[in-house]
Amino acid sequence: MGRFATVRFAALGTMVLMFIAGTAAAQPVAYSWEGMGVGVVGSSKCATYKMKIDVTVQGNQVNGVFQQDNRPERIFAAMADADGTYKAKAVLEEGTLDVTGSIKEANPTIVLDGYCKFGGKLTKK
What we know:
The chain has 1 helix and 9 strands. By secondary structure, it is of the alpha+beta class. The protein has a single domain, classed as Porin (Beta Barrel), CATH 2.40.160. The chain has a 5-stranded antiparallel beta sheet with strand order 4-3-2-1-9, with no helix packed on it. It has a 4-stranded antiparallel beta sheet with strand order 5-6-7-8, with no helix packed on it. A hairpin with a 2-residue loop joins strand 5 and strand 6. It starts with a helix and ends with a strand.
């Protein structure tokens, strides 16, 4: 094997490793949270509202789907900051919910805040 062939082989090997590493880093991570609401000022029924939240993280992109029992499914999308926190608004029929949280591996969280508060620590699926 000549010197040129060795350099080409090494370059090809490096490209393959970069592709594999890039593919692994880009794999989505799925989380979920399910629980009851917490009251906010002016609402007394929050503790009776059950919510399911699914979150998918790919890089800094955060996509979520949530559904309160007997209500339509809703979505949100956000970009996480360098510190791993994210903020978004989820549109409802009558208004919006503030969506906040963190995608830090040690403590991924979500909070939906509006007519009630829902959320907490996300569980990896």
